[in-house]
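We recall that each integer encodes one residue's backbone shape. We quote one record:
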Amino acid sequence: MCPRINEGISIGSRWRIDKFNDQLGLIAKLLRKGMDIETVIKIFRPFYLGSEIFEANVALNVGLQYLIEVICGIGTTTKWDNTNARLGVGSNATAADPTQTDLIDATPTWKAMDATYPQRSAQTAEWRSTFGSGDANEAWNEFAVDNGATAHKLLNRKVESKGTKASGETWTLSLKITFS
């Protein structure tokens, strides 16, 4: 008799928003160039407004199906890489559901990856985008990662109120997904 093997794969997510008063846009420039967040916080401590960490989200069927195609090399696939991946935010607070295919906000804001992102450490992938003074100045209630404007396959969707971003502020959004 063969021993029983657990064949399940679990996916855990951790979101983080770091907020800065950035009237001149200097902080946004440094973050977009890939400077690590801890260094930016240390240099610009008086302008640091704080951070929020929140966990879990809903994996979307459309993204999981597309991920399988990427893994299997089926068709012409677009990866969630530095060239294509974007993090998106919107103001809609409709509950997340696996059958959704997009953020619900009529005009969500999508931002390209900061330099050097996404990154991988062991079984964890991290995506990071910086939203400067003129980006997504609205209530931040929904979040997702997609694989670019053309493919636009959302891997996940998170709904949780994180405040309202104002002009003159830079908010950096990061998503870590751990596979185990």
In short: Residues 61-72 form the longest helix (12 residues). The chain has one domain: 12-179. Residues 120 and 130 are 19 Å apart (CA to CA).
